[in-house]
Amino acid sequence: MPPEDPAERPGPDVGASRVAGTSAVPGPTANDRADPAELYAALDLGTNSCRMLIAQPKGSQLHVVDSFSKSVQLGNGLEASGRLSRSSMARTIGALKICRRKLETHDVRRMRLVATEACRRAINSAEFIGLVERETQLPLEIIQPEEEARLAVVSCAPLVSTKTEQLLVVDIGGGSTELVWIDLTRVPRHDRSRAIMRLHAGFQGASDDPFPRAKVVDWISIPLGVATLKDQFRDVTDDAARFALMSWHFEECLAEFSPYADAEGLVDPGFQIIGTSGTVTTVAATHLNLRRYDRNKVDGLRMTTEQIDRVIRGYLAMGPDGRRNDPRIGRDRHSLIMSGAAILQALLRVWPTDRLSVADRGLREGLLYAQMSADGVLDDGPY
C-alpha cells in the first residue's frame, strides 16, 4: 500500500494554515538580528502528544532551558471519523495554553510551532487552527511530510558515525512514520554529521552549495504511526495475533520505498539505522531496566537486534495488564507500545542490520537546529 499523497487528501488549505494577525507572543521583526544569547522555541503537536522545547545556542549544540510534554491524544477517533473530536481539541488547547505561558515567562521571540499528521488528515483542521488562534494566539502551522522527515533527520546529525556510508533514519510518530535513506559515500568522514545538518535547507540541496552533499536516495511518509496502526487493528482481540498482523501490514506499506527492493545484501559496517521515537526510547529504557527514565543513558545508545527482539518478546509475554503496570513503559505509553514495536520489528526484518542507534530527539530538536543554523548563531555558522 503506497503512502497517501497529501495533495489528494480532503482537508484544509495547508498552505494557509499559518496563523496570521497579531499575537500576544511577540515575534522578531524584519530588522532584528539574531542574538546568540536569545532563546528559541520549538513545538511539535502530533497525533498523540504535544511537546515543546525552549533552548539557547551553545557552541555547535543547544542548551535546553525548559521543556513540556503531554499526551493529548489529538488524533483519538480520527481513523474512524476523519475529524478531530471536540474533547481532543479541548485537551490540546489546554496543553497549548501551558506552552504559551512558558513562552511568555521566558520572553521567547524566535519560535516554530508545528502540527503534523493528525492535522494534515483531519477534515476540520482549519477549524482547529482557528480555535488555537482565538484561544492561545500561538502561530501554529501545519507542515508537510517532507519537512517533517527532513527535520527528524537533522535532529539525528550528532549521532551519525564517521564510518557510516548508508544511513536510514526512522521517525515513528503517532499518526505517521517517516523513513529517509541517505548516501554519504561522497562526503568526507569528518564532515558526515555536518552534511546531515545541512539537509535542513531541503533534500535536494542548493545547486551552488560549496560543501560535500549527502545524497537522499529516497524518503517516504507512511500514514501509519503508533496510534493509527493500533486503531486499524483494534478489533483483533488476541494480543499476539494483533501484533503479528500490525507488523506484516506495516511491511506491506514499505513496498513503494525504493531501498526496500534492494534491502538484501546491504548489511555491512557502513550501514547505520537511527530510530527516533517514543517507541525506540521506551524499548531502550526497558532494555536498560530504567525504573526512572534517564535521557543521558538512552540517547545515543546502540542496541543489537537480539536485544531489541528480547525486549519485544518480553512485552508480548507480559500481556496488556503486565505492560500497563510496568514502570519502564509508563502509563502514557503502555497502550501504544505494541503498535510501535510492530513497526520496529518490520523495519529490522526488512533491513537485518545487527545494530540500531537510539535517538531521544526528533522534530523539536530539528526545528531548533534549523532555526539556529539559519540565523548563524551556532559556532560553525549556517550549515
Characterise this structure:
Residues 54-372 form the Ppx/GppA phosphatase N-terminal domain. With 383 residues, the chain is an alpha/beta fold. The chain has 2 domains: 6-143, ATPase, nucleotide binding domain (Nucleotidyltransferase, domain 5), CATH 3.30.420; 148-363, Nucleotidyltransferase, domain 5 (2-Layer Sandwich), CATH 3.30.420. 37% of the residues lie in helices and 19% in strands. Strands 8-7-6-9-11-10 form a 6-stranded mixed beta sheet, with helices on both faces. Strand 1 (40-45) and strand 2 (49-58) form a beta hairpin.
By CATH, the superfamily of the largest domain comes out as Exopolyphosphatase. Domain 2
Rg, alpha carbons: 20 Å
| Helical amount | 25-40%
User: Into how many domains do the coordinates divide?
Assistant: 2
Strands of the largest sheet, in order across it? 8-7-6-9-11-10
**Largest sheet descriptor:** 6 strands, mixed
What's the CATH architecture of the largest domain? 2-Layer Sandwich
Order of secondary-structure elements: EEEHHEHHEHEEHEHHEHHEHHEH
CATH class of the largest domain: Alpha Beta
Which range does the strand content fall in?
15-25%
Mean pLDDT: 85
| Unreliable spans | 1-23
**CATH overall fold name of the largest domain:** Nucleotidyltransferase, domain 5
Biased composition (Basic and acidic residues): 1-11
Domain Ppx/GppA phosphatase N-terminal: 54-372
Organism: Jannaschia pohangensis
InterPro entries: ATPase_NBD (IPR043129), GppA/Ppx_hydrolase (IPR050273), Ppx_GppA_N (IPR003695)
